Amino acid sequence: MAGPSQSHNTPSCFTDTHGVITTTMNDLPGYRIKTVLGTVYGLTVRTRNWGADLGAVVRSTVGGEIRPFTNLMYNSRNEAVERIVGECMGRGGNAIIAMRFDVASFGACSQICAYGTACQVEKIEG
């Protein structure tokens, strides 16, 4: 399912997390952590399209955003988040706290890794 802005080919950080709460915070206000399930990560390795690279080089000479690379990074991060959510769900978790991204390049490839702590949380009543 695509987010609203994706239908217009605009980059978006929308990813269906299937009810898994994801946060970069170290805690989750309004929730109590019942069980820490451990570190989870999702990664993807992508290569760029050489045709898009040539167009990007031309665009970079005049400045401005290089849209094909922006789209590549959005898509790659969204894919990494989908994978980390799958790892969390596979361990029985319903939340990921302290989520971060790590990016590394080697040659024409980029590795994007989302990582965090999978947990089981419950809403605090009252």
From TrEMBL:
Enumerate the InterPro entries for this protein.
UPF0145_dom_sf, UPF0145_YbjQ-like
Pfam families to which the protein is assigned, alphabetical: YbjQ_1 (PF01906)
Q: What Gene3D superfamilies would the database entry show?
A: Hypothetical protein apc22750. Chain B
- Domain of life of the organism in this record? Eukaryota
Q: Which family does it belong to?
A: Belongs to the UPF0145 family.
Q: What protein is this chain from?
A: Uncharacterized protein
